[in-house]
From TrEMBL:
GO terms for cellular component: cytoplasm. Its cofactor is Mg(2+). This is UDP-N-acetylmuramoyl-L-alanyl-D-glutamate--2,6-diaminopimelate ligase. Keywords: ATP-binding, Cell cycle, Cell division, Cell shape, Cell wall biogenesis/degradation, Cytoplasm, Ligase, Magnesium, Nucleotide-binding, Peptidoglycan synthesis. The modification N6-carboxylysine is found at K245.
Length: 523
C-alpha cells in the first residue's frame, strides 16, 4: 500500500467570526472582528485567515514573532496582556489584526481551534491511549484491526500521522510530536472527518496533558497501559508523572475508560477514574473485570484465555510474543468494543492484523532470529527480553542497545543493568545522542551493565557506531540465537543534535543477511 502526503487541514468549513469566538472563549476582543478559517501556534505556519496563538514559551514569548505572523496574513491573534504589549511595540497600529486577550491563551488554544474547526472529535470515535509503554502498539493495532474490518481510520503518534479512508490508500501528515499542538491536532481531526474517517486512535503523552495539547478532544474511550520510570526530567516525580496520565480519565475528557491493572499505578487509576471504566490484567491472581488465565505460544505470538464475570471464558490471539502484547491485544479488543464495534469481529481481525512496525518486529527468522523493538525504558526493555527468552528453542540472546540524549539520565544505568542481567551479550551503542556527548551516554549505560554482568556473566561490548554495533552482534550470533536491536524501533533517522542521518535498524539487519546470503552463494 502506497502512502501519499496530504494537507493537515480541512477545506470545506465556513469561517468563524472572531467576535463569536471571543464570546465563547470569554476572551476580550480588541479591534475589528475577522473571519477565521484556521488556527496555529507556529508563526511560520500561519495561513491567511488564521487565528494565531501567541503564548509564553520556555525562553521567549511567542508574540516576539508577531511581525512574521501578520506578514503571512493572520486574521486575529489570541494572546495575553504581555503578548499584547510586545505586539504593540513591534507592529504599527494600523497593521495589528484583531486581538483576543486571555489570561491563559495556551489553555484556550484547544477550545479556540475546536470551535474554528466545528468540533470535529464529536463526529467520530477517538480513542486516546496513555501510559509509559504500549501507546504506539495499541494505537497501531487499533488502526490495523479496523482497516482489516473495512473501517476508515486515522492514527496519530510517535511513528507519525496516517489517514486511511475506507477502501483507499494510506496518506501521511507530517508531524513532529507524539501528540501535536492543540490547534494542529484539531485541524487534523477536522481533515480526518472530511476524509471519511470513522475512528481515530491517538497517543496521548504526559507532556500533552500538562501542555493542554489534547484539550477539547472528545474521547470515546481512554486507555491506560502502564507506568514506569520515564520523563522525570520533565515531571520531577513519579507522582507528578502519574497525575498527568490520570488527567485523561477526568469526567470531561472521555465517555469510557479501559485500564490495565498489571501494575499498582493502574489499580490506583481505576480507583480514581471519573469515567465508567473496565479493568484488565494478565495476572490471574489480580482483581480485574477481565483476567488472562492462560497463555500458549502460537507461532511468533500467543493464544490466551480471558475470564470475566459477564459470561463464558473466551480466547484471543496476540500476533507478537510476550505478556505485554497479550495485554495490548486485550486492551485493543476492549477499547474497540467500548466504541461500539462487535467484540467477536474485532477478535477475529486483531488476530491477523495486530502487528506494529518496529515493535517486536521479526526482521529475520531463519536459523538466527533478529528482532527490532522500540523498548527505550528499563521496564519496556525487561519485558522485551523476558518475552524473547520465553520463545521456543532460544540458545542465546544478544542485545544491541543504548539510551537517548537530552532525556531522563537516571534510567541509563538501569537500562544497562536490565540488558546485562537478561542477555548473554550486550553491545552498547549510540541511540539518538542529540546534543549530548555519545561516549558519555554509553559510559552511563555501561556502568549499570558491568555491575549486572558480574552476576550474570554477560559479555559487555562498547561500540558507538550503531551500524557496526548491529553488524557485530549479528556476526557473533549462531543458529538458535536471538539478536534484539532495541531503542529506536521504526525510526528512520538518528539524531545527533546538529544533524539527523538516515538510519533504520531494520534496514541494517536486512542488509547484513543479504550480504551473508550473497557471500555464501559466491563461496
Amino acid at each position: 500500500m502506497t502512502s501519499t502526503e496530504i494537507d493537515s487541514r480541512p477545506h470545506g468549513l465556513p469561517p468563524l467570526p472572531a467576535d463569536t469566538l471571543a464570546e465563547q472563549l470569554g476572551a476580550r476582543l480588541v479591534g475589528d472582528a475577522a473571519q477565521l478559517t484556521g488556527a496555529t501556534i507556529d508563526s511560520r505556519a500561519v495561513r491567511p485567515g488564521d487565528l494565531w496563538i501567541a503564548v509564553q514559551g520556555e525562553n521567549n514569548h511567542g508574540a516576539e514573532f508577531a511581525a512574521g505572523a501578520v506578514e503571512l496574513g493572520c486574521g486575529a491573534i489570541l494572546t495575553d496582556t504581555a503578548g499584547e504589549q510586545l505586539i504593540r511595540e513591534s507592529i504599527a497600529a494600523d497593521r495589528i489584526p484583531a486581538l483576543l486577550l486571555s489570561e491563559d491563551p495556551r489553555a484556550h488554544a484547544a477550545r479556540a481551534a475546536d470551535l474554528i474547526y466545528a468540533e470535529p472529535s464529536a463526529s467520530m470515535s477517538v480513542v486516546g491511549v496513555t501510559g509509559t509503554n504500549g501507546k504506539t502498539s495499541i494505537t497501531t493495532m487499533i488502526d490495523r484491526t479496523l482497516q482489516s474490518m473495512g473501517v476508515g481510520t486515522a492514527v496519530v503518534g510517535t511513528n507519525g500521522t496516517f489517514v486511511t479512508p475506507a477502501g483507499e490508500g494510506t496518506r501521511t501528515v507530517p508531524t513532529v510530536r507524539t501528540t501535536p499542538e492543540a490547534p494542529d491536532l484539531h485541524g487534523m481531526l477536522a481533515m480526518m472527518r472530511e476524509s471519511g474517517v470513522q475512528t481515530a486512535s491517538l497517543e496521548v503523552s504526559s507532556h500533552a496533558m500538562i501542555l493542554h495539547r489534547a484539550d477539547s478532544v472528545r474521547f470515546a474511550c481512554a486507555v491506560f497501559t502502564n507506568l514506569s520510570q520515564d520523563h522525570l526530567d520533565f515531571h520531577g516525580t513519579m507522582e507528578a508523572y502519574f497525575d498527568a496520565k490520570a488527567m485523561l480519565f477526568a469526567g470531561d475528557r472521555a465517555r469510557s475508560g479501559v485500564i490495565c491493572v498489571d501494575d499498582d499505578w493502574g489499580r490506583r487509576l481505576a480507583d480514581r477514574a471519573e469515567i465508567p471504566s473496565v479493568t484488565y490484567t494478565t495476572d490471574p491472581d489480580r482483581e480485574a473485570d477481565f483476567r488472562v488465565t492462560s497463555m500458549t505460544p502460537e507461532g511468533f505470538g500467543t493464544r490466551f484465555t480471558v475470564a470475566w464475570d459477564g459470561g463464558d471464558d473466551f480466547d484471543l490471539v496476540a500476533t507478537l510474543p510476550g505478556t505485554h502484547y497479550v495485554a495490548n491485544t486485550l486492551g485493543v479488543a476492549l477499547a474497540l468494543h467500548s466504541c461500539g464495534y462487535d467484540f467477536d469481529v474485532v477478535a477475529e481481525h486483531v488476530a491477523t492484523a495486530g502487528t506494529v512496525p518496529g515493535r517486536m518486529e521479526l526482521v529475520h527468522d531463519d536459523g538466527i532470529r533478529a528482532v527490532v523493538d522500540y523498548s527505550h525504558t528499563p521496564d519496556a526493555l525487561e519485558k522485551t527480553l523476558v518475552s524473547l527468552r520465553a520463545l521456543p528453542n532460544v540458545r542465546r540472546i544478544l542485545t544491541v542497545m543504548g539510551a537517548g540524549g537530552d532525556r531522563d539520565r537516571a534510567k541509563r544505568p538501569l537500562m544497562g543493568e536490565v540488558a546485562a542481567r537478561l542477555s548473554d551479550t550486550v553491545v552498547i551503542t549510540d541511540d539518538n545522542p542529540r546534543t549530548e556527548d555519545p561516549a558519555s551516554i554509553r559510559e552511563q549505560v555501561a556502568a549499570g551493565a558491568h555491575r549486572a554482568a558480574e552476576q550474570s556473566g554477560a559479555d559487555v561490548i562498547d561500540q558507538g557506531d550503531r551500524a557496526e554495533a548491529i553488524a557485530r552482534a549479528l556476526r557473533l550470533a549462531e543458529v538458535g540465537d536471538v539478536v534484539i536491536v532495541a531503542g529506536k524501533g521504526a525510526e528512520t533517522g538518528q539524531d545527533f543534535g546538529d544533524r539527523v542521518i538516515d538510519f533504520d535498524d531494520r534496514a541494517h539487519v536486512r542488509a547484513h543477511f543479504t550480504r551473508k546470503d550473497q557471500d555464501s552463494t559466491h563461496a
